[in-house]
Amino acid sequence: MIKFFFKIIASFLLLLSLLIAYIFVDFDDNSPQKQEKSTIVNDITQLNPIEVTRIIQPESIEDIVDAIQSSTGPISIGGGRFSQGGQIAYPDSIHLDMRAFNKVLAFDATKKQVTVQSGITWRDLQEVIDTENLSIKIMQTYANFTVGGSLSVNVHGRYIGEGPIIRSVESIKLIKANGEIVNASLTENSTLFYGAIGGYGGIAVIAEVTLNLVDNVKVKRYTEKMSVQNYKTYFSDNIRQDQNVIFHNADIYPPNFTDVRSVSWLNTNESLTEEERLIPKNKEYTWQPKVAKFVADSNFGKWMRQHVFEPILYNFDAVQWRNYEASYDVNELEPSNRSSNTYALREYFVPVESFDSFAIKMADIFKKHQANIINVSIRHALPDSGSLLAWAKTEVFAFVVYYRQETSEAAQQEVKLWSQEIIDAVIEENGAYYLPYQLHASTEQFVKAYPRASEFFELKGKVDPDYRFRNKLWQQHYKANNKQHDGSTDE
Q1: How far apart are the C-alpha atoms of 167 and 246, rounded to whole Å?
Q2: What's the pTM value of the predicted model, to 2 decimals?
Q3: Which of 68, 109, 114, 146 is the least buried, fewest Cβ under 10 Å from its Cβ?
Q4: For residue 337, how many other CB atoms are within 10 A of its CB?
Q5: CA 284 from centroid of its chain's CA atoms
Q6: pLDDT tier at 8, thresholds 50, 70, 90
């Protein structure tokens, strides 16, 4: 009995030492990485280096107009560089790096509206509107993205009763391929409005954005575990119609994909457990990236996450400001090095009635290919209000897939294989895949998932007849002017 007791103690100490090693010792290759050339544009995955002719950092609308009118040839547009498949650049293009185009132009707290230059980050905008206790209505979970980039991919978040960001946009100011400046909204130049938002830089430069805001409120966290099969009913009965729910997502645990943890943040008047109104900028993240690596390294790490780490984390009450919960920093997950392994995202949207059948298909494909999935986050979105490349054609559930892959060519081909299989599965459910990620879908799959693509291409042909606004996404799928423009639209 005593020997058994000591074996238990020894096993516990061994486990503890392993966890300490993973959390506090960095096993990654920390040797200095080769610096990018000044004309190389890459995204966060580091899988898509693209050499451009020149990089321009505009600070005014006049700078953008001048860059367009004083040049010929391709123009690409980038913001925070979080799209992951070359959507921000094109070879030998003039690249507009919008990050210095970042001013707040007007803020009316009474009307709950703000107008900004498109290169501003959500985190910088939050600092301004928080002073009036106002909050972004719709944005993605992480606040490092630029506002213009978020509109270009038509982001969504964890907001219940909302959907794509287009539902919160009052108006935009666009700069067309000839340098003309136009306003667009639901009632003015609406075709341009619905084409540019979610248009991945293919229609025009999104220069200014007017957003509708909402009140900042205190929110309290509630969690519950259940099987995947029970989630759809749980969501319908407990979350969808509850107007007190501000944020909601549910995490499906790999590698079995049978269990879910629901995480909701509800409006509350209870006392704060976190006094900060926003997550501090430039915060040091030491243990979070190492825990992510520990989880990614083995099924044992995934088991520890599900049965040890998160039960401890969620055992404590959490009451904080809505703005705090909306100000996450991507650096909390950023590895020290991406040379041999990188982390990436995929996302799939299915009509709410297809949740159960798609969840089974998705899990089967992941298991078949032994994909190293770290998390699958379930979100909910109401239908898109009309963008030409709408991913929420109806009310949908989103499956946000976070995974790790090797950077070798063979590993990239394996990811492409399972990605295309899941896209076929989502198309079977009359759903869509999200376009900001690696460009593994065929053009046939793209057209099936985005049936209004022909309208988008027709609009692009009218407003950008010389095919100036380009990136790797449109190189793959844009078939108009194929013969005229150096064969750059081949698959």
Answers
A1: 16
A2: 0.91
A3: 109
A4: 15
A5: 22
A6: very low
